[in-house]
Amino acid sequence: MKQEIIKFIDKKYNACPEYLWRRYTTHCIFRHKNNKKWFALVGTVPRRILKLSGDGKIDFINVKTSDAEFFRGVKGILPAYHMNKNHWITILLDGTLPIKNIQHLIEMSYELTA
Suppose 109 and one of 24, 41, 63, 72 were both cysteines; which one would form an S-S bond, judging by CB atoms 3.0 to 4.6 Å apart? Predict the structure, then answer.
């Protein structure tokens, strides 16, 4: 699902992934061409980093929202990993949320950061 999300963002917004950190080679950001503001962060982390049970790693996307509190308790959505938890949320890319819902949240993030 991670690659599908990256392709969606690239196609819809003509935004190429930017890999900013040597240490975090699975993390990429997407930003507006005009104002350079980020609207998404996609990555892969060990499940324990997100306080999830089980072994292994999990893909995620961080997006901006106007009301992060609204999403508390929604299955597949967590307080933002490594971002402002009042304005950003982490969405698990494990199939919990349908791709259309994730795309809608990306669109919202893009608009909020325009």
Answer: 63
